[in-house]
Amino acid sequence: MTAANISAKNLALLTAVAAPLASLSLSLTTILPQDLTRNHGVTLAQAGFAFMIIRLADIAIDPFLGSLMDRTRSRLGRYQIWILGGSLPLGVGVLLCFFPPAQVSFPYLIFALATAYLGFSIMALSHLALCAAQTDDYAARGKVFAWWQVYTTIGLLVAMLLPKLLDGRLGLDLVQWMGITILGLITTSTLATVFLSKAGPAKAPGAHGGFKAYLGLFALPSTRRVMLAELFLGLSAGIAAVTGLMFITSVKHFTIGDFGSQLVIYFLVGMISSPAWAWISARMEKHRALMLGAICLSLSQLIFLLVPPGNLLFLLLVPAVFGGFSYTSVSMLPRAMLADVADEERLLHGSDRTALLFALLTGIFKLGHALSVGIGFLALDAFGYVPALGADNSPAALTGLAVVYGGFTTVCAMIAFCAMIRYPLTGRRHSEIRAALEKLDGAKA
After folding, report:
1. How many angstroms separate the CA atoms of 281 and 44, rounded?
2. Does the pLDDT at position 187 exceed 50?
3. Which value, to the nearest 10 degrees, does the dihedral of the CA atoms of residues 330, 335, 338, 340 take?
4. Is 206 helix (H, G, I), strand (E, B) or coil?
5. What percentage of the chain exceeds 90 in pLDDT?
6. Cα 57 vs. chain centroid, distance in angstroms?
7. In angstroms, how far is CA 130 from the centroid of its own chain?
8. CA dist 56 to 94, 118, 129, 315, Å?
9. 55, 421, 429, 441: which sits with the fewest CB atoms below 10 Å from its CB?
10. Domain 1-202 classification at class level
11. How many CA atoms lie within 13 A of 377 on its CB side?
């Protein structure tokens, strides 16, 4: 399938699954831990240990899921059958997590999180691989993942806004409405992507192998470059996420409501700018567009440092807008680039490793976010910042918070920029790979 064959309607159906996955990801890491510890008898130690163990197991299982997906044969489609199958444990996990009993035991918590994250991993990996497989065209892949980014941002906005609007209605609280919202999105998007969209067939058999094949993906320089960029972009975003509220309230003297307002603007701009980044990547090639995105991300973090304390209008109009614009590029472009890497892998090994590559990418993404919590909090502790004191921390501690939020994130983004210098898998090189693969496919036919 080429760029000319992909209609906007089909892209909208193919990429719809990104919305519930984004909603669930945000809810599991922000709202759910607070609800469990405040209202259902779960201790902080139990919650921390359960989430840590499940996420580590989640990272470990990804390569085996990716390998199985790449070797799947199904009339429904190589990846569609996994999206459908993953929706079942995901739905059960959402019910268990968002409608728990009054007192949640530790075994219940482990089972609920394991079920939810297993379904999440299956759906996320298979959906990314499906998106990557929809076109062979270098520029069109940017368009596909622009739609993926739109739905990802819609999912985040829905999780932030809709449950708050419905809170208390029909006797249901915010967490329960969040669960209902996610279940509705899972159901409708799965039906749209699996049964209503028109997806291209897989063109090569999948590769055998588990963890060894997973690590063997690092053999290609293009794979190493994309993974290095993804790791440090994940670190940059993660450190900003875990320190952002503290910086906004302690250093800039905004309220939590102000922070929420700028996030809404941030994600709205991100959603609107997705087509622009697809156009930019088609004109200047994806790796150069990612370099531009890394620069924009660095500048947006530095602009946050220049916000006048308490000036909400400046916060909403300048750093929130600029930050949302840069967020889109560093989220969608590495995934679009990895679709090109999958072609290079297939030419080298003669087998399809698309899902396995995305398993590696999601593992790197999860690692970056996990490390960001430790790096961010350890750095704040070293600077003497005490969260409970807020704006009453010492000037040195508040300066340290600003350094972590603005400085650490900027350095990480610029390391990602450097990873793209002399990136080998250019548009021209990809055209050569596609020509060789077409000859190979023609010979087999």
Report:
1. 44
2. yes
3. -100
4. strand
5. 49
6. 18
7. 16
8. 20, 12, 22, 36
9. 421
10. mainly alpha
11. 8
Domains 1-202 and 209-445 share a fold: yes
Please tell me the predicted confidence (pLDDT) of residue 4: 46
Q: Which residue has the tokens 């044969």?
A: 73
Return the pLDDT at 329: 93
Q: Are 160 and 54 in contact (CB under 8 A)?
A: no
How far apart, in whole angstroms, are the C-alpha atoms of residue 77 and residue 60? 25
Query: What's the confidence (pLDDT) of residue 319?
Result: 87
- Name the amino acid, one letter, at 362: T
> Do residues 359 and 219 make contact, with C-beta atoms less than 8 angstroms apart?
no
SS3 146: helix
pLDDT tens for 264-322 read 899 899 999 999 999 999 999 999 999 999 999 999 999 989 999 888 888 888 888 98
- What does pLDDT average to over the chain? 88
pLDDT tens-digit map of 348-402: 888 888 989 998 998 898 888 778 877 887 888 889 988 878 889 999 999 999 9
How far apart CA 319 and CA 336 sit, in angstroms, is 26
Give residue limits of the domains in the chain.
1-202, 209-445
Give CA–CA dist 49/45, Å, rounded: 6
Q: Quote the crossing angle between the two packed helices 138-166 and 174-191, to the nearest 10°.
A: 150
DSSP secondary structure of 69-127: HHT---TT-TTHHHHHHHHHHHHHHHHHHHS--SS--HHHHHHHHHHHHHHHHHHHHHH
Name the one residue in this structure whose structure tokens are 């924009």: 296
DSSP letter (8 states) at residue 197: S
For residue 208, the model assigns a pLDDT of: 54
The structure tokens listed for 371 are 């490390």
CA distance 62 to 85: 16
pLDDT given for residue 374 in this prediction: 77
Per CATH, the number for 209-445 is: 1.20.1250.20
Q: Token digits for 160?
A: 């932030």
